[in-house]
Structure formats: C-alpha cells, structure tokens
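Lab meeting notes turned into a lecture example. A postdoc, R.K., suggested we walk through two folding results consecutively so the class can see how the record format repeats. The first protein's sequence and structure tokens come next.
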Amino acid sequence: MTRTSGRIVISNSAGEMLNLAAKVYAKHLADGAASPLTNLDGIQWNIVGPSIETALGKHQQAEALKSQMELAYRERDRYTPPILEAVKASRNLLKALNPKNPKRLAEWGFQVDDSLQVAKSVEASKVEH
C-alpha cells in the first residue's frame, strides 16, 4: 500500500485559521508538558494561545459589522436611483441655462473639467483592443 505525503492545509480565511489555532492550543494544553509544541523554537503557545479567544472575538465583531455594513449599503441603494436622476437632471438644466459659462455649475457643487479631450486615433484604439 502506498502512502501519500498528505498535504496539510491552513485556510487563508482568518476565521477558519483562528478556529484551527484554538483546536491546536486546546490539544497543546491537554497534553501539558508532554506536548511536542513545547519544543517549538521562538514560539510560545503559553503567550500566543490566550490571545486566540480575543482574536476570535474581534473576528466575530468584524463579521457582525460587515453584515451591518452590507445591510446599510443595500438600504442606501434603495434611495440612490431617484437622487442620481435628480442630480443629472439638475446638471442638464443648469448646463442649458449657462451654455457659454458652464463653470457656473461649480457654484452648485459640480466639478467642472474644462481640459481639452484628445480624440483617440484609429491606430491607438486598435492597439488597445
């Protein structure tokens, strides 16, 4: 029977990694002085271990805030279409009322870009595509 080397995967997900760390620390504590992790060079689980619970708490707090953030964005997005429509219609009306001096729209908070736009050459557009 052939034995594979067995890849040991550590998740890139912070939550999954912290849960794994908690399991490793629990086993280390259960094994006590017989734990092979006491032989790690430069790593002291007695210092690192207690911080896992704090990190997990902060992770859970961040996840809850992320959920609140996503909900707030969804609620915000319900309001934005008519607001955007009002802003665009106002811009169009003000621009029509000030055809010779569009910089006056700055008085209303609009950013007026009066730099010249360079038309793309046919050759340049072929290269980009």
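The second example is placed directly after the first for contrast:
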Amino acid sequence: MKPEDKIHVILLTVYFPPILSVASNRMIAFAKYLDKEKFNVSVVTLYSGSIENIELPENVKVYYVKNSQFLKLATFNKHSPYLIHKLKALWNRIIITANIPEFSSWKKGALKKLKKIIEPNAKTVIIASFPVEEPLEVAIKIKSEFPEIKFIADLRDALSTNPFVNKQIRNRYNNLEKRVLKSADIVTTVSKPIIDDLKIKATKCKIIFSEIRNGFDFLPGSIKKVNDKFTITYAGTFYADRNPSHFFNALISLIENKQIETPVVNFLGVSGGILIPKVLKQIVNCFERVEYEQIIPELKLSDALLLIQPGNGFKGLFSSKIFDYLGAMRPIIAVIDKTDVAAKLISDCNAGFVASFDDEKEIEDAILSAYKLWKNNESLKFNEELILEHHRSKQVQKLNQLIISLFHETSMIR
C-alpha cells in the first residue's frame, strides 16, 4: 500500500512511556502491534520528563505535550512510610473531590497538536484512551470540528459505573459517557459486562462496541523450577478496599496450624499503604515500584502468584496483572469476586485456585492447593491455547480489523 493511501491512526493518551503504568502498557501495545502496512501511526501523549533512553516502536511518531498545571495528584513512585502514604492519598482525594482538572494545560496543547498533524482529506482515526478524561474530551472536540474523522473511544476502565470513584466524579463521568456515546464511531473496552451496560445506554446511537482485553506481551511459559521455600508473588499496588488483610489472616492460620512450612511472600511494586502483621514481617518482602520488564522473570520464578481484588457489586473487572500471571503460567491464588469475569477466566484457563475476597477459609484452601503443587513438584495443566489468545498482539488484531471496518461499511464488526 502506498504511504498516501494508508489510514492515519492517532493514539491520544496521557499514559505512554516513559510513564510506568498498566495503562501505558495497553497504549504501547496498540502502537507496537497496529498494522504498519495499512496504517501510519502517531501518538499524542504527556511529556513527563526525559525521553532520551525510551525505546519506542518502529515507524511510530510520538508527540509529547507538556502539562503546566500547578495542582497535581501525588505520585507513589517511591516507598513511603505508612503515614506519608496515607497523607498522599488524602491529598489526591482533596484534588479529585475539588474537581481540579489536573491535565487542563495538556488538553489545550494536545488539541493544538492534533490540529497540526491531521492531514486534510486523509483517512484519519483518533483512538482516545481513558483514563483520564481529557483525551476523550479532546477527541470529542476534534470530532465536532472534523466530522469526517473517525473516533474510537478506548475505555480501559468503566465511566459511569466506575466503582473506585466518589459520587461527584461518577456524575461527571456519566456526563462524559453520554457525550462519548453520541460522538464515537467505536467504543472498545476490556470486558463484556462493561459493553453490555454501554449498549443499554446507547440504543439510539449508531456505534460499534468491541471487547479488546488487556494482555501480556512476553514469551509465555514458566521456568520449570521450584524454590527452596514456597514463594508467593504479588505484583501491583494496594489501595482502598484492595488490601491483603484476609490473605494475611489465612496465611497465619496455615502456618500456626503447621499445614504449610513458612513461605516467602514478595510484593512487587508496593510502595506502602499496608500493615504487615508482626508474625509475618520476616517472610513478607516489599519492593518499591519495579519496572515491568523486571517483574516478568520474577513471576515466572515464583511458585504461586497472588491476585487480590475485592468484590464491590461491579461486574467486568479484570485486573491487568491477571494476564501477566496467565502468561507466566504459574498457579494463581485468586482472592477475588468468584462471580465475576476474572474468576471465570482463571477457571477456563485452568490457571489456579479461586477464593472469595473475604472468606478466609476459602483463601486457606487456595493457598494450600498451590502449596501442595509446590511440595509435590507438580504443575497445572494450563489451557495454553486460551492463554495465548491473551497475548497483546492477538488482542490488537481485533483493533486492526475494527479500524479497517470503519472504511468498509459492509464488513463492519458488531
């Protein structure tokens, strides 16, 4: 295909390298695996410091836009004492509750940059990523001024049904969601329950919905080796109701009742915010924010992988780390909502043991099941075919087809 005949795909996102985030991982995968034979790919994103040593996908133009906003959310990039961690969280709550637009400066710059790089009469698609709100708002503005441009709203998280925000923010998200459904040509999101909810709200809108899950982006498979001590690894952060207290209680019970030998528990990327019981302090290791590339070998070398996600009535919640756990092919100890999509995926992949978030007896059983595998030097019979479907490249293939469908109406995917 001639360069001038290619579709110009513009990723509009705040989260992109060098920012370390699971949201960045999704966007870098889009940039990496979008079909360069059919698309010219650009990224308009947030400037967050030095970019000299950042490895970016080939044949992708990246435009970094600064944000000069003064009042911003506190970051958790480094380990903080428990009290400092809580004070940072309080500050962030104040910023959010006060409805302070953290990226308003970036929003203006991104809009200006888009207008410069959009070529007249060229087939153009803007993929705006949520979180945060500003990329969606910019895309809505561009769509109103250039109706011929196609707009894909990529909702990594739910909007109006988001369980992790207060009522005030949820109302704001609800308003944004209505505007997105009126403006977008396609909405992509990470799970079917979120899509089902959006479809109900968009009955009068001509819009395509598609599930594009998060995934893993490395060679799958575990290192067939057990550790001298049963080693459980958790990758990620803790916040709000997501905490390891029930897991800790279950672990203490197993150790005190001599059902398991003393294990090792590694928390990767946990910079504070949890209270470790005194009896576990010698076996629980917390490591500050760890780069994604460093986490994967640790997952593959672990004897079990811990997933913690409280149930809150919201359905369709996939923690991003579940896909890295699946790719590592080590038994998962899942302390989650047993009725939600993550539990079903683990079951379908035969990838581990599921317990209700607050049922400590079930958590004990899950830990013990993983422990017995380690003790007997056994492994699970993973559904490798299904796991491989969750490689990032496989998921982005769906996005490639969706973009093509926007310009070939007879083959539209619904």
